[in-house]
Amino acid sequence: MPLFGNTFSPKKTPPRKSASLSNLHNLDRSTREVELGLDYGTPTMNLAGQSLKFENGQWIADMGLSGGVDRREAQRLRRRNQQLEEENNLLRLKVDILLDMLSETTAESHLMEKELEELKSVSRRRK
Predict the structure, then answer these.
(1) Does Transcription regulation appear among the keywords (predicted)?
(2) Measuring CA to CA, how many Å separate 27 from each of 30, 31, 32, 98?
(3) Interatomic CA distance for residues 47 and 68, integer angstroms
(4) Nearest C-alpha neighbor of 53 from the set 41, 40, 43
(5) Per-residue confidence of the chain (127 residues) as pLDDT tens digits?
């Protein structure tokens, strides 16, 4: 028998209290949302003055009161963008044509210089 009693027998722990004394976990989801205000709505954010909202897995520009571009302005910008793209394509075509003309003229110039050199050398031989 030990001198000071059995030192390795711990005391029994008291039973735990209920995790929550509230009965809100018993309520269904819709009642809980009404009671606790859990209806968050769609996530929104503001980037550089543009308001965006998350709907159906995509961020969409909000056309509300936040100063989004209206439909007419967006159409005007699309038309202007289309005009500028067409103008850019036309200018690229013109540059390509001018480069072709330049290379053709340069090739002709080199041929003429070569012929001139040959004629000079033939005339020198005759003298």
Answers:
(1) no
(2) 8, 6, 6, 78
(3) 11
(4) 43
(5) 556 666 677 778 887 766 666 666 677 777 777 777 666 677 888 887 788 888 888 888 776 544 556 778 888 999 999 999 999 999 999 999 999 999 999 999 999 999 999 999 999 888 7
